[in-house]
Amino acid sequence: MHPLETLREEALAEITAARDEQSLEAVRVRYLGRSGSIAAWGDRMKTLSKEEKPVVGKLLNQIRTQVTSAIEQRDAGFRAEKEAAALANIDISLPGTPGERGALHPLHQMLERGIGIFRKMGFALADGPDVEDEWHCFDALNTPADHPARNEQDTFYLEDGRLLRTHTSTVQIRTMKAAPPPIRVIAPGAAYRRDEVDATHSAQFHQIEGLYVDKNVSVADLKGTLEFFMRELFGKDTAVRFRPHYFPFTEPSFEIDVRSKALKGGEQWIEVCGCGMVHPAVFEEVNKARNDSAYDPSEWTGFAFGLGMDRLAMILFDIPDIRLFAQNDLRFLRQFA
Ligand code: DAH
Known about the structure:
Distance between the termini: 79 Å
Shape: elongated
Order of helices and strands: HHHHHEEHEHEEHEEEHEHH
Number of strands: 9
Mean pLDDT: 93
Largest sheet: 7 strands, mixed
Bound molecules: ligand 1
Radius of gyration: 40 Å
Helix content: 40-55%
Low-confidence stretches: none
Structural class: alpha+beta
Strand content: 15-25%
């Protein structure tokens, strides 16, 4: 046996015999280190004859590779043993620490249901800012300067004369300014009033505004649309009542009440919506702003509505107090998770 082969046998035997990573490292240094025995053979190569050199060189390379890979294997074995030992102390069948799971706010759930129903009827979503100017909130909606809604006692005004919109009807105007008829949109969002806060009034509340402008739109379309909505939301046996009312921006105007045995409120009528046929004066004001006559009232008619979303959610989920929506009380919110 060539002395190099003897060296290999020794090295492999020592690697197998190593009990831990430290003793394995000692073996590595002894054989492969800079002053190790295999390195020493590398130095000795220079002194060998021409005939011996290639034979020994080849053998030396072979042995270096073999010893290196044997050490790597043994080392991997040690690491696997260590990991297995560490894992043995962990009970992987123990339940984890659960993170708290969030859920949608009941108003948001109400919103998604509402949007879903109007989607079925082909309504698209429209949007507008909460901070508005008086023109979009009042003037364009045929609401005169002496209307009580414009009173400082009733509305939140900013220093610059803008205001927090008192209703989502502002989006009707923004939508018509931006595009010619036909229009079929809903605009869900917040509205603000300086109401005395109590169980049914909040300074911030939410509405789903609706606007449908086309040729030959009539009260029958308005009635059919909102009756369908209420029955989808509250159940087939929901009765819907249209009461004559007044809004500056619609003519005729109605308020809608619903009543259903399925509702916790029982047999009483509950008011949920204002609506009507878009007033020609609103179309004219939009035309002025657009600088055209796209909304010619002799050609186009439309209906509009404003649904009280908080009210709908209170009925749907049997919530007794509107203030609960904004108090962030987890005992309340968890019931809708
Ligand atoms: N903007 C009204 C309110 O906040 C509700 C309303 C009534 C909206 C009639 C409409 C409508 O679009 O046609 O009380």
